[in-house]
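Example for reference:
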Amino acid sequence: MEDQVANAIEIAWNPSSDQAIQVQAFEYLNQLRTDPSGWHVCLPIFTKLPRHSEVVRHVALEIVNSATQTGLVDLQGLGYIKDSLMDYLRQMYGQDSPAQMDPAAIQNKVAQTLTYLFSALYANGWETFFDDLLQLTYKSPQSSSKDNSLGIIFYLRVINSIHDEIGDVLVSRSRAEQDKANMLKDLIRQRDVQKLVSSWQEILSQWQNESDQIAEICLKAIGSWVSWIDISLVVNQSMLDLLFQQLARAKDVNLREGGEKVRDAAIDVFTEIVGKKMKPSDKVDMIIFLSLENIVAQLTSSPPLHDHRFTSKYDTDLAETVAKLVNITTTDIVKALDHEAADPSTKEKAETLLQAFLPHILRYFADEYDEICSTVIPSMNDLLSYFRKTSKKNPALAPQQAPMLMPILKAIIAKMRYDETSSWGDEDEQTDEAEFQELRKRLNTLQQIVASSNEQLYMDVVSEVVGTTFENVRQSGSQVDWRDLDLALHEMFLFGDLAVKAGGLYVKNKLNNAAAERLVEMMLRMVETDIRSFTHPATQLQYMEICVRYSSFFDHHVHLIPGVLGSFLQLVHHPVKKVRTRSWYLFHRLVKHLRNRIGNVAETVIKALGDLLVIQAEVPQEGSDGDDMSSEDHEGSADAVFNSQLYLFESIGCICSTTAVPIDQQVIFAQSVMNPIFMDMERHLGAAKSNDERSILQIHHDIMALGTLARGFSDWTPGTTTPTTPPAPEISDAFGQVSEATLVALESLKSSFNVRTAARFAFSRLVGVRGSQNLPQLPRWIDGLMTETSSKDEMALFLRLLDQIIFGFKSEIYGILDTLLTPFLQRVFSGIADPTTGTDDEIQLAELKREYLNFLLMILNNNLGTVIISSTNQPIFETVITTIEHFARDVDDFPTAKMAFLVLARMSSLWGGPDITQPANGENTTESALPGFAQFMISRFSPLCWSLPMTPTFNPKDAQAKQVLGEAASLQKIIYLKTGQEYIEWLRNRELPGLGMGGDLINEYVGSLEQLDLKGFRQFFQSFIQRLSA
């Protein structure tokens, strides 16, 4: 059977094996893995001579591993595996060990197996586990020292593996697993820990100059175990002397790679020692005892970090390792300072340590490598947060903190600067750019903490950086490094976090605060220095971002607007695509804010933007790079560029429609933009009808541009009380051409999803410009947008649009609504009836159902309910009711069921006639009854209130289910108010007995319906259904 298993492993891991046979081999091995006797076969496959191939031995041992870990092996079996493996290890590492050792992967797998055996047997029969392992570190029983290098390496592998299993705090464990790990750690502390630490000390002492590999792995063991053993076992003079000897390697300029790893591992031991949990006073004393400041100072001044800094020989690994030590030490110093219960002596020592460590924090924080800077950001955050906390508690401390905060803030700002090797906008450096922007965000968090600790200091430092840089630009112009100007502008942009908080730059036409005053000074200098003329794309983009963020500045400095507007009109033609397309959006934002202060510049703007308004659709290329498109590529895609181009059309609409432009000129300007688009649509319509993909996309783009232009001209929303007013009739008439052109294209191309999407967009935007003039065309819009190929999602979106139109034009829409309701609803019913094909489709269907019900509610709530029962729409009334009934019974969609009951309740309230039973709140209604509707409510609506809760899968305690029951209760209450005793008789004699209720339950139910108010009956019905279900 061993040969059979070995053969199966070979087949399974051989890429050239027949696929069908390979699948069988994997299935066989998986069965073997779960078979309690499977390990019996696999253990000898691993240990036997001559050796099997590496893959066969590895997989065989993995199956043994799995069995020991998952409890498939009993105690006796575990003992057998232990004995077999220890015999094997003695052969491998004893005095007669073979010339060829196991590969590292096999050694690691054996170490893992021994770790699992340790977990199972150390407390249960294998008390000599560590003694047995230590024997492997000697070549023979006669050896007086640990002279077996291969055995030592294997012993240390197991030591590190045991820490990973029971001591690593980053490993997620169940409660039971953690309890077992704690028990094993306690046992080790009782039995073997001193012996183990002595062995590491002996190994390090003996092998530190002989084998870098042994020294490194030994130091890793010490560093990992120190977190959960007695600190005095490691922090003692003999062990520290050994550690200091390893640190001394930092002075060796010719240190080989293995030696560097030993040195770094020794530093990591100190990091782990400092990271050990203890009282703040003990931690401070230990930092002093270890002379950590002296250690860091010596390492920082060592050749790899000092002499080689700013050269290619700079040792970044060492820098990052020292930075970790600085970070954790600083964090603990701050904890001691911030600890309420710490005694004055401890705080005094901690304050002295902080002063000593501050230069080290700043040194590694300011390191030119961002990874090293990032390593100390956590402790910098802790330190600054401590400063903020103490300054808030005692403002008098601010002057004492300022000497420390000043260099920190300057270091933060300096770190925000692009380094000398960076080249902005280089496509090959997109990842570096993203990482740098992420670092800037983290640095800004620190900067804001400084600002909230000492606002005056922050304002002074940033003002100096910005002012000095602007002055340099004024004097030296293009000779200034773009990185310096970018930094100043970036700081100016961030300064707004302080200056515009709580209401903006200005409040009631006065500057908000001292920071706002500083920012206005910076803005004046920025515009007057003509920073825009500095030709680097990064600074030009920053300039526009700042103008837009602080656009309220120009409300109070109107004389500067023409110059800034002129700058933007130049920058929208920028040769760099990233800047150009972003500038279109920023120009739109600026114009939208300043539209009432810009004046009559429409003609100038249209001429300046003319060449950018030419629309050129590009069909996306498929298959060139697959779907793996980065965000940067996406931002530069043809689709993204067109979406940015739309902002230009909206901007023109904003500028042309200001009160400074006479109405007749507004019409001329609008037509000057529209007419080329109309001609373009006419040119492409023929090819689009023939399904030419680019022509269809071109017409989509044209319609989107026209709709966006309309939005720029008017953001008036019918039916709302917004301060904006409807556009002049002349403007509405001009945009009638847009409506007609869109409809012509839609009628010809309504099978195209893209054209329908663009047309729906244009329709929604035209409502604000055209108002009620759009209503006569509504049947054509519905015909084009609600086609047989329209998705459920499209129908739902259009229903939402119609809701707005009904609300906005309720007094004018009745006649049109009466004509189109039946054909329109038939299309909606068709969409609802379409079978779903997957989760997305089901979500869209649920959305369509809710929008349909909302549409009915909109009609009912705006005094248009009679349109549903008019002679025109009477034939479809039964279908309307049937769909609502169906939704009200849907146990899988409570939100829709709830809305269905709301619609039925509204119908009952409107058409059930006046209340014949006085409502509990004293209000009465005087609606005229719809003939026969009272009986219709009783026979059709009332049973629905029981259909849903009587479904076997209905859970009345579900939160959404309770809401549905509440609406069902409201419906019954309305039916009772409208029909009174007739409904009571129906309930007593037919409906409730039909549900199997006895006399007592019926009396209780009917009494509650008659006597309780609406709120009380809702609560009663919910609890009543819960009792019935129980």
